[in-house]
Amino acid sequence: MNGSPSLASPSTPTLPSMVSPDTPLESLNLNWSERDLPERERTKHVHRLHPYLGKFIPQLVEIFLRKYFRPGQVIYDPFCGSGTTLVEATTFGAHAIGTDIAAFNVLLSRVKTAKYDIHQVQFEVLDILEKVVTWAQGGLFRSQISLPPNWDQATEYLQLWYAPQALHELLLYRALIPQYQHQDLLKIILSRAARSARLTTHFDLDFPKQPQRTPYYCYKHKRICSPVREALKFLRRYSLDTIRRIREYMRLRQDVHVRVLHDDARVVSLPMLVDGIITSPPYVGLIDYHDQHRYAYELLGLEWRKELEIGPASRGSSMSAKEQYKQDMIKVFENTSSFLRSGAHIIVIVRDKERLYPEIAKKLNFEMVGHLQREVNRRTGRRATAFYEDIYIWRYHA
């Protein structure tokens, strides 16, 4: 492996439209301000179908697709998460494969990257919403809604974290999903509404520790707020938002293929050779990826495989945890190398405070093409501290 120092960034921020294969790596400045890259651009079309912690911004993927790849190639993300790399590949014109150990991540990535008949989507999303509204309001037409036996059964977790009315509305929506073609899309709308309808404070949707059942001072709204009691308003809001985002995405999505595998990247067998990787691996000891969507696992009955996560927060960031993380990452890239074409570029975007990734690349004998750092100065919720991300550009030689 050839060593390479970090590349200094120029003062003018780089936008994706400015990048081509001939753009020098050292000319890239990825330290975008809010003015350079407003929130509406960072969460364009399906990228915001559902909140997701640890999501990297799509403009990073777009820049490195333009720099190192071309339409028609196959891009792989061994930690596809919410599908950022896969979505950007489809609008760029590249085929994409993603792997993730978390069932919810796989569901979300598949929904984001699917091809849709927008007219059918609009009909189904509005039709199921109308049925939930009709049931909630009662009246003559309620008896015309067909529901399966025991449709309102709920786990202890769901009973603990939702007010009775909100839980009833969520369970009703869930019971109606099998009547439609786009069931996975409806599950994502349901999950998004369930996240917002929990008995938690408005400012702590990411990390709620216990249900909030009484009024509280809200740091988000700067006033006294009360816990949410209903889910219907969220189902309505996110239904309309989903239709709009799918419509926007389908104008951009090209005729390419996407495969999302629910598997372990350390051992997965890919269905074909790939031309390169763009990925943002988990940060060691930062996020429990299954736990952040616990409500979806409980509501949808998804498979729980938390024990196979790499570097979860529950294992901490001790020296032994970091060593285990490093060994797991080596296994991921060793396994992936079996499916890489010679000369493939590997783009890794990660917060590497411990400088583990140069060791990983050396162990794998990857060529170090470059190393950039970018300041991440826009955070969500009450987590406003800036930090730096590392972008490693490696090259694989068979």
SSE topology string: HHEHEHHHHHEEHEEHHEHEE
CATH architectural type of the largest domain? 3-Layer(aba) Sandwich
Global mean pLDDT? 92
Q: Radius of gyration, rounded?
A: 22 Å
Shape: globular
Spans of 5+ residues with little confidence (pLDDT < 50)? 1-5
Description of the structure:
This protein is an alpha/beta fold and 398 residues long. It folds into two domains: 16-114 and 262-395, Rossmann fold (3-Layer(aba) Sandwich); 118-249, no CATH class. It has twelve helices and nine strands. It has helices at residues 39-42, 58-68, 84-92, 103-113, 118-137, 156-161, 164-176, 183-196, 232-252, 294-300, 319-337, 357-364; strands at residues 74-77, 95-100, 216-218, 223-225, 258-262, 274-279, 340-350, 367-376, 387-395. The strands form two sheets. A seven-stranded mixed beta sheet has the order 5-2-1-6-7-9-8, sandwiched between helices. The longest helix has 21 residues, at 232-252. The radius of gyration is 22 Å and the shape is globular. The two termini are 13 Å apart. The relative contact order is 0.16. Residues 1-5 have low confidence and may be disordered.
Notable characteristics:
398 residues; alpha/beta; Rossmann fold; 2 domains; seven-stranded mixed sheet; two-stranded antiparallel sheet; 36% helix; globular
